[in-house]
């Protein structure tokens, strides 16, 4: 078993003076020796504050070198980190905190309002450590400033076999986020495979684009630390600026870029990438949703020197379970790129009514092997429903994805069996959005559907609702109310207020009809 923090320790022994982390501003840097020392001291500080092996440490902070250090410091304390989106509303974060029961929360200035919101939600007995000295105040019980940790001695408590490394909370269809348990072994198995497959080496300059509450970020962090390479934290503010994102890849001379497809689509649509751009770039990887083939072809034509790889996998089988190295620019841009073949130690099984589907036939995709999570945090029922026994008696995860395996054993993704969607790479259960809309006073009935309107964000979230007799609930008021309950990326982009929602013959809300309502009417000439 490899513990994730040992990947850092080994690289720090091999090349203490090499740069490990470079902050979004390009100025803040930590060498391997510095990161190793700082994380030792953070561990000591946590242990001194009573954090025991297996305890959870919540992290509400922007992605800075200091935040990354706090994650690894948590692991060195034998504890389990829970990165939470500090841009989420306090009501949702409070549910996550109540479920994870962290003994300490580490927060930075970006989360000050959120921490106040958590207290207002009734979480008044939280121990909140500040990741920045100036925040030490009423709510913040300890300051994790650099000077504070300088004098501490390293602590490394003993932990058991394959302990948890972190909990990642994903959208839950009933409105309650689900905590996926991620162990050290799950991540290190993928890192092992990825280092060999991509040939990651010291001197590589690797992007860290996805947010820390998203499992893709763990690949960036631990594969970089294992290889002794440089991790370049991408500023969150670049999110909506294609040219600045391209300039970042160029100026930092990145050798690896990894993100969700919507970022690549965005850069392509805004023509931000020149012919033979990014001469240092060796590989471009994406994961999390379908990258439209025309966009991939655009990138491949612009950057013939780069290797392009599609990675596929759910958080429950961290990080990716399969890969497809795209051999040449796709000739037919109407054909989706396969999700490929299993990474080492993983298995992909397509089942039709519990039996392996014949070659070429559509079935439901299940995943087995070394990346499988032990399940959902403190939720036996959901765990048992999603992690089941396969035809050969093996433990497999029911992804909810539809797929087929072709004659060469290559797997093709064909959509979902349920109402989980991806929007800008975020995994969203439409049921969670619906639950939030239904809690707004004055709503009689509502339905939330995902519609592909051809935008670069992927599926667009659309909500139709009707209003209770005597109530008034215009769209602006509704949007405001829902924004207070859900993270921004879950708030419907399109709304429709109806007297009555359309029903099918069984009296259920007719979602296909609603989806059509949200599609723009074809132009006269079409
Ligand atoms: P997440 O847990 O956020 O990684 O979401 C997992 C889901 O995202 C999968 O079950 C798929 O529906 C989708 N997904 C992940 N990677 C890909 C990919 N490369 N192509 C298509 N869909 C993907």
TrEMBL record:
Molecular function GO labels: phosphopantetheine binding
Question: How is this protein annotated for GO cellular component?
Answer: cytoplasm
Q: What biological processes does GO assign it?
A: amino acid activation for nonribosomal peptide biosynthetic process; secondary metabolite biosynthetic process
InterPro entries linked: AA_adenyl_dom (IPR010071), AMP-bd_C (IPR025110), AMP-bd_C_sf (IPR045851), AMP-binding_CS (IPR020845), AMP-dep_synth/lig_dom (IPR000873), ANL_N_sf (IPR042099)
Q: Which residues form the AMP-binding enzyme C-terminal domain?
A: 432-508
What highest taxon heads this organism's lineage?
A: Bacteria
Q: Where is the AMP-dependent synthetase/ligase domain?
A: 10-377
- Give the matching SUPFAM superfamilies: Acetyl-CoA synthetase-like
- Record's protein name: Amino acid adenylation domain-containing protein
Q: Which organism is it from?
A: Actinomycetospora corticicola
């Amino acid at each position: 078993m490899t513990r994730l923090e040992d990947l850092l320790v080994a690289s720090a022994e091999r090349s203490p003076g090499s740069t490990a982390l470079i902050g979004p501003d390009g100025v803040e840097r930590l060498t391997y020796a510095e990161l190793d020392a700082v994380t030792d001291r953070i561990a000591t500080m946590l242990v001194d504050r009573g954090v025991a092996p297996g305890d959870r440490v919540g992290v509400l902070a922007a992605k800075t070198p200091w935040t990354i250090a706090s994650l690894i410091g948590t692991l060195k304390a034998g504890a389990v980190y829970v990165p939470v989106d500090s841009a989420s509303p306090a009501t949702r974060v409070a549910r996550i905190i109540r479920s994870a029961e962290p003994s300490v929360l580490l927060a930075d200035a970006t989360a000050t309002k959120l921490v106040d919101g958590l207290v207002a939600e009734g979480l008044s007995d939280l121990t909140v450590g500040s990741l920045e000295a100036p925040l030490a105040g009423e709510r913040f019980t300890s300051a994790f400033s650099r000077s504070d940790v300088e004098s501490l001695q390293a602590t490394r408590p003993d932990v058991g076999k394959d302990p948890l490394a972190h909990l990642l909370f994903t959208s839950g269809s009933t409105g309650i986020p689900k905590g996926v348990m991620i162990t050290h072994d799950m991540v290190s198995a993928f890192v092992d495979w990825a280092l060999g497959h991509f040939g990651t080496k010291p001197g590589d300059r690797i992007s860290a684009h996805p947010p820390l509450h998203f499992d893709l970020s763990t690949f960036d962090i631990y594969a970089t630390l294992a290889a002794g390479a440089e991790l370049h934290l991408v500023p969150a503010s670049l999110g909506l600026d294609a040219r600045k994102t391209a300039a970042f890849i160029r100026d930092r001379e990145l050798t690896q870029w990894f993100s969700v497809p919507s970022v690549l689509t965005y850069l392509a649509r805004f023509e931000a990438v020149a012919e033979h751009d990014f001469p240092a770039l060796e590989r471009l990887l994406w994961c999390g949703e379908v990258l439209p083939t025309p966009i991939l072809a655009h990138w491949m034509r612009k950057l013939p020197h780069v290797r392009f790889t599609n990675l596929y996998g759910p958080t429950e089988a961290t990080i990716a379970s399969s890969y497809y190295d795209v051999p040449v620019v796709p000739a037919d841009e109407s054909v989706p790129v396969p999700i490929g073949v299993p990474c080492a130690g993983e298995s992909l099984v397509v089942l039709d009514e519990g039996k392996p589907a014949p070659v070429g036939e559509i079935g439901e995709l299940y995943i087995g092997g070394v990346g499988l999570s032990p399940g959902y945090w403190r939720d036996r029922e959901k765990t048992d429903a999603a992690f089941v026994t396969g035809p050969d008696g093996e433990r497999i995860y029911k992804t909810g994805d539809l797929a087929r395996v072709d004659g060469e054993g290559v797997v093709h993704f064909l959509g979902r069996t349920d109402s989980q969607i991806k929007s800008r790479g975020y995994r969203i259960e439409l049921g969670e959005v619906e639950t939030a809309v239904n809690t707004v006073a004055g709503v009689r009935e509502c339905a939330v559907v995902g519609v592909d309107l051809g935008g670069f964000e992927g599926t667009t979230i659309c909500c139709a609702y009707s209003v209770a007799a005597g109530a008034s609930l215009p769209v602006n008021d509704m949007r405001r109310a829902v924004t207070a309950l859900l993270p921004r990326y879950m708030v419907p982009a399109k709304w429709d207020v109806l007297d009555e929602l359309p029903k099918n013959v069984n009296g259920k809300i007719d979602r296909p009809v609603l989806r059509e309502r949200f599609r723009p009417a074809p132009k006269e000439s079409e």
